[in-house]
Amino acid sequence: MAIIARIAVGLVAALFLYIGVSIWFNFDATVLGLGLTVPNALGRAAVRADFGALFFGVGGMSAMAAWRMSRTYALGALILLCIALTGRVFSLLLEGPAPGGTPPMLVEALSIGILASARHVWRSSTP
């Protein structure tokens, strides 16, 4: 089971790192896919910095978690994803459902489940 958890967490890492790279280098298409319009250079810099921090943070911690089968790195990624999902739920409660809002929530929830499961599995198989 530990190797399956390692592969699944590695896939989470790859997904979030890919999105981070896309935000930096394929900016217009990526932010449009996220439902954003960014009118000026200051906004572009803010999106690259803030969204990049989230996606590279989750991706990097997930990669380290998979590589080392580390419960600590998995927890870091898990916390960030829980905060992100909480923000989406908060928006859902305040503003109602957004068109296209369900898939990102599902990806975050699935990633949370993968990371939480890996932490559970790695408890018995790693120091």
Task: Give a nutshell description of this structure.
This protein has 127 residues and is mainly alpha-helical.
Describe this structure in words.
The protein has 127 residues and is an all-alpha fold. The protein has one domain. Helix content is 85%, strand content 0%. Helix 1 packs across helix 2, helix 1 packs antiparallel against helix 3 (41-68) and helix 3 crosses helix 4 (71-95). The longest helix is centred in the middle third of the chain and has 28 residues, at 41-68. The chain starts with a helix and ends with a helix. The model has no long low-confidence stretch (mean pLDDT 94).
- Oligomerization state of this entry? single chain
The radius of gyration is 15 Å
| Strand-pairing-aware structural class | mainly alpha
Main sheet attributes: strand count, strand direction, barrel closure:
none
Short key terms for the protein model shown above:
127 residues; mainly alpha; 5 helices; 0% strand; globular
Ordered list of secondary-structure elements with their pairings:
Layout: H1 2-25, H2 27-33, H3 41-68, H4 71-95, H5 102-125
Helix pairs in contact: 1-2, 1-3, 1-5, 3-4, 4-5
